[in-house]
Amino acid sequence: MQHADLSRLAQERPLRVLLLNAGAPDALTWSGLVQPLRLAAKSVGPERLHVDIRSPDKFTADAARPWHIVLLVADESESGLKPANMRALVQRCRAAPFWGGVGAGVLWLADAGALDGVRAALPWSLYAEAGDIADQAVFTPHLYEVDGAKLTCCGGAASIDFALTLVETLFGSSVQAQVKEVLCVDRVRGPEERQRVALQARFGALQPKLTEAVTLMEANIEEPLSTDEIAQLAGISRRQLERLFKQYLGTLPSRYYLELRLKRARQLLLDTNHSIVQVGLMCGFSSGSHFSTAFGALFGNTPREERQRKLAQ
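Structure (tokenized):
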């Protein structure tokens, strides 16, 4: 997630965030987004953060205000309730330095042509509804995305991770820690983590073996399986498994598995106090040098440098 441009908003006094609630107020997507932001506003005070809520109709009818972040929010199950005034809504959203959608809001913005060429985290259950617009927006299976000034999140439980990541980017890790404690959240998932059923939604019933293989990998991070073992458990040959990964994911199973473990390691380095050796072992690396070399090849820095970055923050 690219925080460099977004973090400059931390200098605004107050930082004004507008949430456009186009769905039910008790939906997980909505509550997962609004509660962390409200708690952050309470922590830093109104002089630093102001969180406001509008309905789409009230927003477009309201006089222009200097909102810094505007998000159109609705649960994925409410995708059929698209606001009638989307054109005016998009124009008003674009007036903010950063804007985007959460849950069904991502689909509506993409359908309005507002996300053409943008990497966007679309809820897996709405892939089928995306239809032709999938050729314009670059839908990813990730939990959330920040592409330039566009912010998108797949919604559901990922809304909490997204909101907490915004809080850390804008106000620092100490404020995020306070909010996490109130919400009883132990770990904030990173944007590179995939939606749990995104692969199934992407490939449908046509490639259940691929989905099964990825699920096996995700469930066996600490004690990795061999490619042959994964193929055997999935009920296909190693050659068939490699062909599926190459065709649909553009890589070999072994490479995909390695990156999965390394991404998990990076999360542990940033989100926990486990030692670097412990993190390596928890992610299936019995050799410290192998862990460090593989980590550096993927992320461009060593596990030690990653941990130091956390301490610096």
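The chain has two domains: 4-183, 207-313. The chain has a mean pLDDT of 88.
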